[in-house]
């Protein structure tokens, strides 16, 4: 990843320049201590990157579009081709009538999946049947239909790829509940998983969604994901705390401060704007009076802007009626 980033950022455009950068790295120091030839490692690494389609051919070192996508999305170079193929294949039957398909795309897979994932067949079947019509259609487009789930619930033998798909879809079901504003506690209890594991799943999926958004920016053929993933990733990162979203509109408020405001009984921007800065200072202690003034002022400005926007819309409607 170091070598790909160095080339992608334009720091090194020749093998000699790449060797100079590598010589000054901790990796080179470790290789020398092991008695390994740094130049040989460099040549082998460049060969692997070319074989993976991440570098263009020729004497000048230049990343391909897939290579740029890999380093901008912080995707393991060894996984880049497989990930691209998976995303491209998913486009053929991408279901957008609900969010289930996109949630499956960003659900951890392989080594990124939580350890000791437990599947209880009868509960799995019930969770599947609780899905809405459009969600079941999305599941079918992923290769998970009632027949497969019934076979698993009945204790029938499954192929390795079928079991892997069902395990990943169980993570998708957990993300789907979180997306629909169920709390981490409720989801953990429903699926019999530790709360920390469910929270880690959400954080991992949100981070991967953001990485995929950057990955797809460099690949024109994945234009659909480029349009969908940025907003989707942002919403996913907040879906375990939807009650905080109104407060997160304030420019000077982050998630921790928004949670403090919510716990203090201030549930909306209007509540904050109507609060005396001195009272807010005591509610959120310890914070300086200057900070509480900034929070209240920001809330008032945001309310004023919203009021002006609504007034403009009302005037446009009235003009249209005349």
From TrEMBL:
Coiled coil: none annotated. Residues 77-236 form the POLQ-like helical domain. One of its GO terms (molecular function) is ATP binding. SUPFAM superfamilies: Sec63 N-terminal domain-like (SSF158702). InterPro entries: Hel308_SKI2-like, POLQ-like_helical. The keyword Aminoacyl-tRNA synthetase does not apply. Residues 1-18 form the signal peptide. This is Putative dna polymerase theta. It comes from Ixodes ricinus (Common tick).
């Amino acid at each position: 990843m170091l070598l790909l980033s160095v080339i992608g950022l334009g720091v090194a455009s020749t093998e000699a320049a790449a060797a100079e950068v590598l010589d000054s790295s901790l990796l080179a120091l470790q290789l020398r201590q092991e008695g390994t030839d740094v130049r040989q490692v460099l040549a082998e690494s460049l060969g692997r990157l070319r074989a993976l389609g991440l570098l263009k051919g020729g004497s000048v070192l230049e990343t391909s579009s897939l290579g740029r996508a890999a380093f901008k999305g912080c995707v393991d170079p060894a996984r880049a081709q497989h990930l691209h193929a998976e995303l491209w294949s998913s486009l053929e039957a991408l279901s957008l009538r609900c969010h289930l398909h996109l949630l499956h795309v960003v659900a951890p897979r392989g080594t990124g999946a939580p350890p000791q994932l437990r599947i209880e067949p009868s509960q799995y079947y019930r969770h599947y049947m609780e899905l809405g019509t459009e969600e079941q259609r999305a599941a079918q487009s992923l290769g998970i239909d009632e027949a497969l789930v019934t076979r698993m619930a009945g204790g029938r033998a499954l192929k390795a790829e079928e079991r892997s798909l069902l395990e990943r879809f169980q993570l998708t079901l957990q993300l789907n509940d979180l997306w629909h504003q169920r709390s981490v506690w409720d989801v953990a209890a429903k699926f019999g998983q530790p709360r920390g594991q469910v929270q880690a799943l959400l954080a991992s999926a949100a981070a991967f969604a953001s990485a995929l958004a950057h990955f797809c920016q460099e690949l024109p053929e994945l234009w659909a994901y480029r349009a969908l993933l940025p907003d989707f990733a942002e919403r996913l990162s907040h879906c375990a705390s939807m009650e905080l979203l109104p407060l997160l509109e304030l420019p000077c408020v982050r998630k921790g401060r928004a949670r403090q405001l919510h716990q203090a009984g201030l549930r909306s921007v209007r509540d904050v704007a109507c609060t005396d800065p001195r009272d807010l200072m005591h509610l959120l202690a310890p914070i300086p009076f200057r900070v509480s003034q900034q929070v209240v002022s920001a809330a008032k400005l945001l309310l004023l802007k919203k009021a002006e926007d609504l007034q403009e819309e009302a005037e446009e409607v009235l003009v249209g009626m005349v």
